[in-house]
Design a protein that fits this description.
The complex is a heterodimer of chains A (417) and B (129).
Chain A (H helix, E strand, L loop, with lengths): L7 H23 L2 H22 L5 H21 L7 H6 L1 H10 L2 H15 L6 H11 L5 H7 L4 H18 L8 H25 L3 H20 L4 H14 L25 H15 L6 H14 L8 H14 L3 H15 L1 H8 L10 H13 L3 H14 L3 H18 L1
Helix pairs in contact in A: 1-2, 1-3, 1-6, 2-3, 6-10, 7-9, 7-10, 8-9, 10-11, 10-12, 11-12, 12-13, 12-14, 13-14, 14-15, 15-16, 16-17, 16-18, 17-18, 18-19, 19-20
Chain B lengths: L10 H4 L4 H20 L6 E4 L6 E4 L4 E3 L20 H14 L4 E4 L2 E5 L15
Antiparallel strand pairs in B: 1-5, 2-3, 2-4
Classes of the chains: A mainly alpha (417), B alpha+beta (129).
């Protein structure tokens, strides 16, 4: 008997990994989210009973789909005629029952199923936070309590948010036909946005482990998407971007939970494994000559990752990459980021000039006043710098952001004494 | 005789391991590696990045994003090359492909490389044929 199957952790991780593909295939059969979820639950229960005794099936995903579907059909028949299907123990032994199913569920099926499931979660009628919560519940299989903790809200509020989101998409009528190339591209773009949103939820939360785990989940979904769509440079770019940002996790906060800026991070703490994977993916993406915003952002992150020290950062490359990003997605926030690189290259005066026209658009944006305060501070205009830092603190979204600016202010105070 | 041991697993599961889980496995493997090095049995070893980072060359002019996905062919051998980027790796793969046009070359970046650590590695035990 295979030894590994007695390890409950192996079964757990297999069930977690199989979930997106299994639930999305069951959704195609039942065309009903609740039915698909219930069928998958039942299949998992049976796997927990069956696998330790009979050994792992050759293809766990196909097993779960087949057993989940049969369990649901079994339930229906029991209600109507009391005729049962063959027991699961037989299914896992009968390779001939498994083989045709595996053949039918080849990658082309899986990929549109998974994409559909993710796409349903990012329906435009749902608010961004609803999309992310729904994807975590349905695609990732996180419990309502886990999601509530990640979003710093009560279980009851999260339950309600997810129930409402489900009711909305039930009415939305997402088509089940295989999407055409244009529609597939649109779905991929919407799903990529949702995955990046999920990542950012975790990233801004920083050192809270329950929320930071959202980053891992986003990376897991992106890798899944990439396995299903291996030739999409923007999906490579998105995955690379998240891997490169996540590589800095251990270096981003000090023991007190305060933010450590890129320039002060201990680069030895960066996760080299994630950096290598991110750079390898970006390298591959760029060979396609189909640039996009995720690839450019990943290239910016990779430029930082390649610099052994902050002082060795290739600011000219970063400035050029932000300029490219500005052309693709004109946005004052991107210009603000570019200004930081420009200031490194041409001095704080140049940075200040670049962001001067943005004040109106970014009057409610923490980083605008943080960055402008820093430029002013470098130019010795301390009174103006202080005003900006005060405004930044008022706009801070997290305690870590506020305390970071407060340290600037403390330094200003000390300099004056 | 020299042998190659090829390790297979579900990469979606393995690459979702937490840092602790991954380290636990690597530490257990490390104990075995260390003993094998002492016994003079371990040559170079390496861990590959996931297949999402793979590129496949089918003939000198056909580059495909993604891993080698056919089951008709079998793994016959591999090279470890040290080059700055994928483009340079592809250039070498193209040369090999031109010399051996029916073979497919999958290019996989290496995540972890353990170089030859024995005092007296073999030099002539496997003759070129």
């Amino acid at each position: 008997m295979n030894q590994v199957i007695h390890d409950p952790a192996w079964i757990d991780s297999t069930l977690i990994a199989a979930r997106p593909q299994a639930v999305s295939a069951l959704l195609r059969y039942f065309r009903d989210m609740d039915a698909a979820e219930e069928a998958y639950q039942e299949a998992c229960l049976r796997a927990l009973r069956n696998w330790p005794q009979n050994g792992p099936p050759r293809d766990p995903v196909a097993w779960l789909i087949l057993v989940g579907r049969n369990a649901a059909l079994d339930g229906t028949r029991r209600q109507s005629r009391n005729v049962a299907l063959p027991p699961d123990e037989l299914i896992s032994d009968l390779t001939d029952a498994e083989t045709p199913l595996v053949d039918r569920l080849d990658d082309s099926h899986y990929r549109d199923d998974v994409l559909r499931l993710l796409f349903i979660c990012c329906h435009p009628e749902l608010a961004a936070t609803q999309q992310v919560a729904l994807a975590l519940r349905i695609v990732s299989g996180l419990s309502v309590a886990q999601i509530a903790r990640a979003f710093l809200t009560s279980d009851a509020a999260m339950e309600q948010r997810i129930t409402r989101a489900k009711a909305r998409i039930a009415k939305a009528n997402v088509p089940f036909e295989t999407p055409g190339p244009i529609e597939r591209g649109e779905r991929l773009a919407a799903v990529a946005t949702m995955i990046y949103l999920l990542f950012n939820e975790g990233y801004t939360a920083g050192n809270d482990p329950a929320r930071a785990s959202l980053c891992d989940e986003a990376i897991r979904l992106a890798r899944l998407l990439l396995r299903l769509f291996p030739t999409e440079p923007e999906i490579m770019g998105l995955t690379a971007l998240m891997l490169l940002q996540q590589s800095r996790l251990s270096a981003r906060f000090d023991d007190a939970g305060e933010v450590i800026l890129l320039e002060n991070q201990d680069r030895a703490l960066w996760n080299a494994k994630l950096v290598n994977e991110g750079i390898a993916l970006l390298d591959k993406a760029m060979r396609n000559n189909r640039p996009g915003p995720y690839q450019v952002q990943a290239a910016i992150a990779a430029t930082h990752a390649r610099a052994p020290e902050f002082t060795e950062t290739d600011w000219a490359a970063i400035d050029a990459l932000y300029a490219a990003l500005e052309r693709m997605q004109p946005s004052p926030v991107i210009t603000l980021n570019r200004a930081v690189a420009t200031a490194k290259l041409h001095g704080p005066e140049a940075g200040l000039a670049m962001i001067a026209p943005l004040e109106k658009a970014l009057s409610g944006y923490f980083h605008y006043f943080g960055a402008r305060g820093a430029f002013l501070l470098q130019l010795g205009r301390t009174a103006e710098a202080r005003t900006d830092f005060d405004r930044a603190i008022a706009l801070a979204g997290t305690p870590a952001q506020a305390s970071h600016i407060r340290r600037h202010l403390d330094r200003l105070m000390q300099d004056q004494i | 005789m020299l042998y190659t041991l090829l390790c297979y697993n579900k990469e979606d599961v393995v690459w979702s391991w937490s840092k602790e889980e991954d380290e636990a496995v690597m530490n257990r493997l490390g104990v075995v590696h260390e003993r094998l090095v002492k016994e003079g049995k371990l040559g170079p070893a390496l861990r590959l990045l996931p297949t999402t980072t793979a590129t496949t060359l089918r003939g000198p002019d056909m580059v495909i994003d993604g891993p080698f996905a056919e089951t008709k062919e079998q793994l016959l051998g591999f090279y470890v090359i040290d080059v700055p980027d994928l483009e340079a790796a592809l250039a070498i793969a193209r040369e090999l492909s031109a010399a051996n046009p029916t073979s497919v070359y999958e290019i996989r970046p290496v995540a972890l490389y353990l170089p030859e650590a024995r005092a007296n590695p073999p030099t002539d035990r496997v003759k070129a044929y």
